[in-house]
């Protein structure tokens, strides 16, 4: 016993005493057994102290049995594998496990932050809202850093996570949540109908608390029945069992998320490459909640000291792990169930007495306890605890419900307490998607009531605790929800025998007496350090609604989502206000049931898969040529190709000048392309565009503007008439999918009589712009088999033919103002034609150019870009394209809105050009023009820069801007104050800076 | 045509060792997008004359005639599958035969990448990117379904019980390929609803 | 994550396979002659929407399926879909009768017309 003072010499159904496991806690090397949890193994080594609390830094130990644990949060793993805030009661021990306690500095036993506890009278409930408010500047530099250092839980891991994670979707007929006796009975009967059944349990083994609940099934211990059922279900072709899997949330239409800890318990699996966690997204036709119940703590003075546990947890510690919670204990209860703990402790040779708040304890279990020689004190409560890092003694006071504070008390030495205030059905999942609940006075707790979804709760989750009732109810659950039982596959129910329990008596709060009431805390929410006094204070300060009290005190808002605290808080409020618990109301349980990892949410969608990236057929060539890529929607477009000894500014200028003086080649494959065909196609396009398309001649191209119904520009592009009833529409790169959907929407919902088909074909074609004074020469060198003469193939027309042997569609259109051809070729031939064009262009001085050169070239010409010159509130009139808004057409999308008063009023911002006074000054994109320059903001803003570049063609800066009444202010000089005090002055000019007549594209 | 350089979207990719299924690109797949009304008798007759098959009217089904397949995409849209060379021929023939009948025929052979997934557990691999109920009887061989896969649009064609073709737009080919590499890793293999280890 | 059913092709799937298109049964006043549409009518068409607690009617598109638009009747409290119906159709009669508030006003005439025919 000397090296393992708390490991009992026998017992422990879960552990394998032949397999020793080495691990460390806070750097100390310890050993446990295979099957231990971190909690049981550390406690076996005699340590009760696991961490410090969130606000007051009070010493804390293990309280719970599993996922309800609120105190013993630990960090597990090292460096980039470190995972904070894990419940020690759920961490399975393995060889080499490294765990650390949290929220303590410099060490767990001596913690500087615990001074918070001494000064706690200054940080009562709601202190967040009362302090740190002034002076304002203190927040950033004093309060926040201080709070961040002293409050909080674990620390984040360092470095890139080396492990993998994944998501998976699954549909099922029945999802059973919880694999205890009720869950297994429900699963068995659902599976017998042939339904696809999933059973998920957060623990490594199925069975729930069958092993510590006493009672017999068919004359055998419950565990024997559990083992039979689990192996039968595991064999079934229509059942999938998911251990170590927490159902973390329930959403609309029975959509659930299940968090599976695949490899946390076994580093060998991780080494083999298994995902660490897997997130299941399950759509279930029916959900059966067999989530059990969570034991309630009781609020008494210093009820948070290490060594104070839930009765069920103390029992599990002894029976599952062969670990004693201490030498001499008190079982403090208001119900019969905790007597099982007293009996288990006694059987294990541990000293124990029972303190029962009820006036009478005459059930089967209390009688068994008395027969076993256990001292039972009724009408008594634990009113205070002595000891700091552990329990040294308790004060036991006489108690009678409803009779106020009692003064007689006695002191009993002990080193641990097992408390039980009754059980709360685990209703979290029931409530996530709006399930209604009702108060059950027998349980003194809430039970499921109504739910809009096909979901039902069985067993303890439904407030049904008696074994026989539980099994009957669970077996019928599938039928209850589905109202179907097609196969007459009746399941034989086992015969249950169990000690009958007498009712509990509500006990929320056992106030300390006399001096023990001074400065001692009665905790309700252990994780957020909320006490009875905090709740009473909130109530006195006028927080009548429980939802307000929750937010003010933060009770129930910690990562445990109030598992052990919600109802106790309501009980205290009920006593403080004299209202019943149902009148107080309930707060909402929110997902997740327990915290789950970010990794599991992201799944494989990290790194290269973080975002879908679209590549053109020329992508690899761009990459090989050292292109910088620019995101355009999900596309990656070549921005500029920087050569040796060049910076980006240099390469952009080189590319622009090549287009202006020789010839350039641009990958424009991302442009949206949509085929539109049908007898009503022309009329349909007239509805979609602001300008007229029905008059376009076959073989010709026309630039079109599109508005939404608000009258604002949404897209533009060139549309080609391929045949009388057949068009090819080009859209912006980012707008391709949106516009295709937009066209479909109007065809399907408004002009349903139009005979028009719309097929997006963007990716069928690789498309390149050959632009510059020598563009035609390039085509000629590529043996174009169509007329290249200016008259035979004029600007804004279209040809189909062969180029370098490749089948192409060629559009003579220009976004640079130069002679320009856009060549489209089926995508798989894109790379071949691209290379052929470059070969042909080599001796003509051809240079590939990127999107930045493209933008400067178009800005020199004053061409707008949707999204630069427009911001979603810009009309065609604003950008000076009145000429493209048809006066002849009766109707088109957005036409009526352009007539609304607010779009016709004065002071609309209008598109203008800007020339800075100093030609080398390049205005920043988005710079604001102000009416009067002042020392500091605010200044009245009258417009903003929409595009701004250095133009190598003009050897000076140019910009476009949207300026209030801009067109009436030609020649005016505006001021643009920048950050740092500099003011750039620029003159308003026409936005076309170069080749105003458009002569260059027409040769 | 012999001197023309042609490459499919995944030409630079080869499946690595250590996957739980086989994965490759199908390169010689011609595709024609065909629009028309299933209720238009003339349209259906003209199509049959060229393709030799009745276009499937039942949602999410497909029909074969020789080496030509027609996949149902919508109530007025089908994807015709054949060899690349034949797609050029059939596109021209369909256009000619349909004439003034309201329809739209587009050769889209280069618009999508086709990924062939093969092997036991292929459905489980796909479930890591698709929320469809792929284990149900709805996904028998011959089934066609457009879907959201990972973060992109895709077309699923159940070729055989354990053979699936996934069609994605060409620009997303690398993304889809890499997503499959990540989700088809052998150590991440998932078996669903079969016999399980009872030691739980 | 809602479970949506397409009445056109019968596909059923997560709402991410579909595209929500806002309130249903909004008439576009400008289609015949925009000049006859008052400023107020255009404003209502663009900006004024019902926001009922309970039964609501909306548009959806089978975005990852057949690509067709359709209508849905949905309870905004329970999220239950009460019906899916064609994009050019009115809701089932019993739902028009069950509608409240602005929807009841809207369907009043339709129900009368329906009763006559």
Q: Care to describe what's here?
A:
The complex is a heterotrimer of chains A (1003), B (200) and C (117). Chain A is built from 27 helices and 52 strands. Chain A is an alpha+beta fold. Chain A folds into six domains: 103 residues, Ubiquitin-like (UB roll); 201 residues, FAD/NAD(P)-binding domain; 116 residues, 3-Layer(bba) Sandwich (FAD/NAD(P)-binding domain), CATH 3.50.50.60; 68 residues, Arc Repressor Mutant, subunit A (Orthogonal Bundle); 192 residues, Gyrase A, domain 2 (2-Layer Sandwich); 96 residues, Beta Barrel (Elongation Factor Tu (Ef-tu), domain 3). The termini of chain A are far apart. Chain B has two domains: 93 residues, Probable tRNA modification gtpase trme, domain 1 (Gyrase A, domain 2), CATH 3.30.1360; 79 residues, Alpha-Beta Plaits (2-Layer Sandwich), CATH 3.30.70.1520. In chain B, 21% of the residues lie in helices and 30% in strands. Chain B is built from four helices and ten strands; from the N terminus they run E-E-H-E-E-E-H-E-E-H-E-E-E-H. Chain B has a five-stranded antiparallel sheet with strand order 1-7-10-9-8. In chain B, strands 3-4-5-2-6 form a five-stranded antiparallel sheet, with helices on one face. In chain B, strand 4 and strand 5 form a beta hairpin. The longest helix of chain B has 15 residues. Chain C is α+β, with helices and mostly antiparallel strands and 117 residues long. Chain C has one domain: Folate-binding superfamily (Folate-binding fold), CATH 3.30.2270. Helices cover 26% and strands 26% of the residues of chain C. Chain C contains three helices and six strands. Chain C has a four-stranded antiparallel sheet with strand order 3-4-5-6, with no helix packed on it. The longest helix of chain C has 16 residues. Chain C starts with a strand and ends with a helix. The model of chain C has no long low-confidence stretch (mean pLDDT 95). The interface between A and B is large, with 64 and 60 residues.
Question: Concise description?
Answer:
The complex is a heterotrimer of chains A (1003), B (200) and C (117). With 200 residues, chain B is α+β, with helices and mostly antiparallel strands. Chain B is built from 4 helices and 10 strands; from the N terminus they run ββαβββαββαβββα.
């Amino acid at each position: 016993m000397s090296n393992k003072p708390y490991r009992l010499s026998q017992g422990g159904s879960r552990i394998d005493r032949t397999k020793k496991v080495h691990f460390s806690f806070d750097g100390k090397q310890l050993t446990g057994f295979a099957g231990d949890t971190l909690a049981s193994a550390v406690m076996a080594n005699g340590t009760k102290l696991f961490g410090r609390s969130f606000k007051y830094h009070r010493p804390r130990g293990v309280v719970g049995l599993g996922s309800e644990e609120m105190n013993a949060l630990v960090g597990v793993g090292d460096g980039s594998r470190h995972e904070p805030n894990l419940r020690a009661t759920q961490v399975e021990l393995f060889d080499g496990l490294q765990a650390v306690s949290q929220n303590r500095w410099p060490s767990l036993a001596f913690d500087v932050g615990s001074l918070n506890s001494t000064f706690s009278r200054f940080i009562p409930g709601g202190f967040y809202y009362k302090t740190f408010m002034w002076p304002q500047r203190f927040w950033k530099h004093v309060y926040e850093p201080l709070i961040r250092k002293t409050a909080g839980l674990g620390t984040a891991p360092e470095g890139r996570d080396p492990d993998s994670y994944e998501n998976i979707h699954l549909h099922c007929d029945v999802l059973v949540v919880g694999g205890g006796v009720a869950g297994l009975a429900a699963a068995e009967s659902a599976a017998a109908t042939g339904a696809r059944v999933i059973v998920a349990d957060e623990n490594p083994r199925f069975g729930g608390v069958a092993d510590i609940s006493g009672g017999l099934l068919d004359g055998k211990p419950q565990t024997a029945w559990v083992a039979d059922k689990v192996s039968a279900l595991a064999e079934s072709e229509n059942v999938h069992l998911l251990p170590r899997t927490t159902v973390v949330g329930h959403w609309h239409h029975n959509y659930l998320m299940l968090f599976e800890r695949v490899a946390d318990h076994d580093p060998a699996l991780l080494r083999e490459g298994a995902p660490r966690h897997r997130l299941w997204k399950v759509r279930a036709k029916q959900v059966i909640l067999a989530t059990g119940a969570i034991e309630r703590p009781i609020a008494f003075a210093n009820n948070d000291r290490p060594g104070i546990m839930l009765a069920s947890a103390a029992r599990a510690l002894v029976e599952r792990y062969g670990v004693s919670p201490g030498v001499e204990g008190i079982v403090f209860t208001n119900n019969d169930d905790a007597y099982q703990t007293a009996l288990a402790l006694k059987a294990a040779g541990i000293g124990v007495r029972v303190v029962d708040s009820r006036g009478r304890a005459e059930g089967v279990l209390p009688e068994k306890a008395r027969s076993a020689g256990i001292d039972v004190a009724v009408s008594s409560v634990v009113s205070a605890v002595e000891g700091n890092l552990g329990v040294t003694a308790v004060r036991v006071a006489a108690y009678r419900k409803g009779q106020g504070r009692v003064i007689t008390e006695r002191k009993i030495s002990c080193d641990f307490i097992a408390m039980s205030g009754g059980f709360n059905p685990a209703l979290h999942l029931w409530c996530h998607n709006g399930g209604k609940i009702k108060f059950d006075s027998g349980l003194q707790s809430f039970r499921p009531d109504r739910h809009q979804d096909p979901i039902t709760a069985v067993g303890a989750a439904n407030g049904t605790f008696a074994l026989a009732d539980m099994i009957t109810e669970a077996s019928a659950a599938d039928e209850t929800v589905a109202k179907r039982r097609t196969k007459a596959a009746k399941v034989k129910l086992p015969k249950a025998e169990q000690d009958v329990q007498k009712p509990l008596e509500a006990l929320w709060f056992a106030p300390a007496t006399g001096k023990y009431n001074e400065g001692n805390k009665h905790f309700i929410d252990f994780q957020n350090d909320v006490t009875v006094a905090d709740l009473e204070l909130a109530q006195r300060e006028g927080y009548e609604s429980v939802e307000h009290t929750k937010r003010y005190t933060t009770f129930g808002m910690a990562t445990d989502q109030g598992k052990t605290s919600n109802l106790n808080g309501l009980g205290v409020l009920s006593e403080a206000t004299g209202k019943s618990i149902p009148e107080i109301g309930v707060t909402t349980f929110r997902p997740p049931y327990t915290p789950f990892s970010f990794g599991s949410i992201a799944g494989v969608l990290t790194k290269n898969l973080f975002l879908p990236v679209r590549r053109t057929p020329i992508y690899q060539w761009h990459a090989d040529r050292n292109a910088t890529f620019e995101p355009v929607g999900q596309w990656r477009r070549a921005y500029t190709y920087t050569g040796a000894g060049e910076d980006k500014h240099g390469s952009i200028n080189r590319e622009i000048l090549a287009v202006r003086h020789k010839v350039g080649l641009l990958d424009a494959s991302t442009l949206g392309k949509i085929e539109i065909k049908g007898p009503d196609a022309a009329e349909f396009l007239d509805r979609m565009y602001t300008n007229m398309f029905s008059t376009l001649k076959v073989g010709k191209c026309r630039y079109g503007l599109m508005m939404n119904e608000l009258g604002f520009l949404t897209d533009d592009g060139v549309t080609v008439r391929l045949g009388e009833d057949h068009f090819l529409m080009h859209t912006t790169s980012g707008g391709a999918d949106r516009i295709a959907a937009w066209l479909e929407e109007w065809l399907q919902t408004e002009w349903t009589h139009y005979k028009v088909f719309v097929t997006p074909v963007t990716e069928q074609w690789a498309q390149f712009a050959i632009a510059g004074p020598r563009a035609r020469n390039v085509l000629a060198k590529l043996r174009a088999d169509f007329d290249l003469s200016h008259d035979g193939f004029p600007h804004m027309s279209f040809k189909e033919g062969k180029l370098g042997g490749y089948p192409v569609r060629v559009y003579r259109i220009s976004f640079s103002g130069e002679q320009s051809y856009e060549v489209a070729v089926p995508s798989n031939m894109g790379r071949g034609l691209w290379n052929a064009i470059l070969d042909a262009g080599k001796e003509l001085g051809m240079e590939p150019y990127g999107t930045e050169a493209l933008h400067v070239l178009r800005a020199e010409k004053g061409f707008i870009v949707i999204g630069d010159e427009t911001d979603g509130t810009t009309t065609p009139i604003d950008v000076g394209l009145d000429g493209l808004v048809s006066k002849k057409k009766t109707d088109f999308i957005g036409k009526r809105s352009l007539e609304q008063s607010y779009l016709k009023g004065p002071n609309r911002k209008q598109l203008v050009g800007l020339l800075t006074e100093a030609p080398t000054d390049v205005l920043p994109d988005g710079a604001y023009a102000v009416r009067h320059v002042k020392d500091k903001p605010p200044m009245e803003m009258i417009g903003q820069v929409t595009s701004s570049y250095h133009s190598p063609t003009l050897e000076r800066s140019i910009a476009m801007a949207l300026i209030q009444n801009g067109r009436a202010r030609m020649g005016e000089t505006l001021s643009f104050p920048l950050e740092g005090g500099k003011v750039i002055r620029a003159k308003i000019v026409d936005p076309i800076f170069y080749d105003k007549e458009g002569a260059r594209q027409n040769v | 045509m012999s001197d023309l350089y042609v490459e499919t979207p995944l030409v630079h990719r080869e499946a690595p060792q250590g996957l739980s299924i086989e994965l490759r690109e199908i390169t010689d797949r011609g595709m024609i997008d065909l629009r028309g009304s299933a209720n238009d008798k003339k349209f259906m007759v003209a199509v049959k004359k060229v393709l030799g098959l009745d276009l499937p009217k039942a949602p999410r089904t497909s029909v074969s005639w020789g080496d030509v397949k027609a996949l149902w995409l919508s109530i007025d849209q089908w994807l015709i599958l054949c060899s690349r060379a034949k797609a050029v021929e059939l596109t021209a023939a369909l256009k000619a035969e349909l004439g003034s009948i309201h329809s739209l025929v587009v050769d889209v052979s280069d618009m999508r990448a086709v990924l062939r997934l093969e092997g036991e557990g292929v459905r489980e691999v796909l479930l890591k990117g698709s929320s469809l109920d792929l284990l149900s009887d709805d996904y028998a061989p011959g089934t066609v379904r457009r879907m959201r896969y990972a973060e992109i649009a895709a077309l699923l064609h159940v070729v055989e019980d354990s053979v699936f073709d996934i069609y994605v737009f060409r620009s997303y080919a690398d993304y889809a390929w890499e997503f499959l590499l990540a989700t088809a890793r052998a150590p991440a293999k998932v078996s669903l609803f079969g016999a399980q280890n009872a030691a739980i | 994550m809602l479970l949506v059913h397409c009445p056109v092709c019968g596909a059923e799937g997560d709402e991410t396979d579909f595209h929500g298109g806002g309130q249903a049964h909004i008439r576009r006043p400008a289609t015949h002659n925009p000049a006859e549409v008052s400023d107020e009518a255009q404003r209502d068409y663009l900006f004024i929407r019902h926001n009922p607690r309970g039964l609501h009617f909306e548009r959806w598109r089978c975005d990852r399926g057949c690509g067709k638009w359709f209508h849905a009747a949905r309870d905004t409290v329970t999220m239950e879909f009460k019906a899916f119906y064609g994009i050019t159709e009115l809701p089932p009669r019993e739902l028009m009768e069950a509608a409240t508030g602005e929807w009841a006003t809207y369907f009043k005439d339709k129900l009368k017309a329906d009763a006559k025919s």
